[in-house]
Design goal:
Elements: E1 2-5, E2 12-17, E3 20-25, H1 41-47, H2 52-63, E4 68-70, E5 81-82, E6 89-91, E7 109-112, H3 113-120, E8 126-129, E9 135-137, E10 143-148, E11 153-157, E12 162-166, H4 169-172, H5 175-178, H6 189-195, E13 206-210, H7 222-232, E14 243-244, E15 248-249, H8 251-261, E16 266-269, H9 289-295, E17 304-310
Parallel strand pairs: 4-8, 4-10, 5-9, 13-16
Antiparallel strand pairs: 1-7, 2-3, 3-17, 6-8, 9-12, 10-17, 11-12, 11-13, 14-15
Length: 311
């Protein structure tokens, strides 16, 4: 006998450092939405049932050998980094895992009943939430999770600690500070990440930026981009390579430049572009908020999955 169970392979696996593995999960032919917004402990307890996305994330975490995921909520773009122990809201399925529902029918695979029984009788992955922050430290043997659709993830390590953060434009730029009235302690979340490494030799810091929109983002005004360029000239590396013409911005490149400006000498980026990348069949590989707003507004809340494993 066979049992239907959703099995989704990573769209890409990247190993930027010896102690870090990145697993990226895209549209899967337009079938898979990786948004974990429904994973709010209060709502889960009230409903007494786990949303289908939990089983989806549980499955891919187990495939990576991970039992604990840390997933702060980045919706406020507040440029804050929390400590992993502060993420006290634990969402976890006790064994047995509930049988999957028809909601998965579009992209189910088959599993032998014996294999399914073994899988279902183990406790599910622990997903830790409960703090509004852009990022957190990632303890060894665990992983960071972000559901994103254009905003890149920044990973910084000194070889021992690993810190991951969501890098939305408003997380990278305090628009109030550009007008002379700062609204938070750090202009950019990159500065908040670096604070976590005070007392350590920053020469040893390495950074990697993954899965962001390419040179297509255009919500900032020309005046704002000019002010941002002036602000960033105050750093060690006066670069404006994140500007694309007069009105567009490459957010991935902005993260790279901010890292350089703030003293991280080893910064790499990947070549993923959530807005434009397509698979071999010509279908878009990733969800993109910017593209959805222009071409398919019904998809604007759908998200890719980014899992950063600290080995």
């Amino acid at each position: 006998m066979k049992t239907k169970i959703k099995i989704v392979e990573p769209t890409k696996i990247i190993r930027p450092f010896d102690n870090v593995e990145v697993r990226l999960f895209g549209r899967n032919g337009g079938k898979t939405d990786w948004s974990i917004k429904p994973l709010v402990l209060e709502n889960v307890l009230k409903a007494r049932v786990l949303p289908p996305v939990y089983i989806l994330v549980d499955r891919v975490a187990r495939e990576a050998g991970i039992k604990t995921l840390y997933a702060p909520r980045p919706s406020e773009f507040n440029a804050q980094i929390c400590a992993s122990p502060d993420l006290r809201e634990e969402i976890k399925s006790e064994a047995p895992v509930p049988i999957l529902t028809q909601e998965f029918s579009d992209y189910e695979s088959m599993m032998d009943d014996s294999e399914y029984k073994e899988w279902a009788e183990r406790e599910g992955v622990s997903i830790h939430r409960g703090v509004n922050a852009d990022g957190c430290d990632v303890p060894k043997g665990s992983a960071f999770w972000l559901s994103s659709a254009d905003c890149p993830v920044l990973i910084v390590t000194d070889g021992r600690r690993v810190i991951c953060t969501h890098c939305g434009y408003k997380s990278l730029v305090d628009r109030g500070a550009l007008r002379g009235t700062p609204t938070r302690p750090y202009f950019s979340v990159v500065g908040a990440v670096l604070k976590e490494f005070i007392g350590r030799n920053r020469v040893n810091l390495r950074a990697f930026v993954t899965l962001g929109i390419g040179p297509h983002w255009s919500e900032a005004s020309e005046t704002e981009l000019g002010a941002l360029a002036f602000y960033e000239r105050l750093g060690c590396y006066p670069r404006e390579s994140y500007r694309v013409g007069r009105k567009k911005l490459n957010i991935v490149e902005l993260v790279r430049c901010q890292c350089l400006n703030r003293g991280i000498g080893n910064v790499r980026t990947d070549d993923n572009d959530t807005f434009a990348d397509k698979d071999k069949d010509g279908k878009f590989l990733w969800w993109s908020y910017e593209r959805a707003m222009k071409k398919s507004p019904a998809d604007k809340l759908k998200r890719n999955g980014v899992m950063v494993v600290h080995n």
